[in-house]
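DATA SHEET
Item: assembly model
Revision: 1
Owner: S.N.
Input lines:
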Amino acid sequence: GENVEQHPSTLSVQEGDSAVIKCTYSDSASNYFPWYKQELGKRPQLIIDIRSNVGEKKDQRIAVTLNKTAKHFSLHITETQPEDSAVYFCAARTGGYQKVTFGIGTKLQVIP
Amino acid sequence: ETGVTQTPRHLVMGMTNKKSLKCEQHLGHNAMYWYKQSAKKPLELMFVYSLEERVENNSVPSRFSPECPNSSHLFLHLHTLQPEDSALYLCASSQDLGAVVHFGNGTRLTVT
């Protein structure tokens, strides 16, 4: 089955700096890659996603890149703010009925 | 309002108890899921239901028993749990299998 690896597991950045979280996947048939943000005590929420026919997608301060050849994708957050502090999960969708497999999560701390 | 409502938010139970977790989605989705979220582990998919039929059981112990009486409701019946079953149990739904997953706020379960 699909295996999604995510790193780093924890990341601390100064407010205003950029943060990058990287994920790799194993199944070349994966075709959809969502990113979820989970604030402390709250549910995971979709923040951005990318499909396999696109190399990059941007939404304000958040961007995601996909390298299908290398089978890795990354989340980029620019001009980080304290409210960006959360756990971020990457995921890959694959399989006969398009099962979603999640990474282990990255705890991002933005230091004011 | 999340669209996916889980009750209770917190549950403490002994190893010999029987309890049930409830999930209700108000989004008109056709697929529902149970996930287990433990510290330092990826989100673990437990069960998948599509149009009220179970399509996946990810080698989950029989002490966890799901029930999907209709497309809007999902239950997880618990009995004779172990302390290692303590975790956050997240319910989720999607329009169809593999579509964007919407999570509930979860039930924090503690087994004593």
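QC remark: The radius of gyration of chain B is 13 Å.
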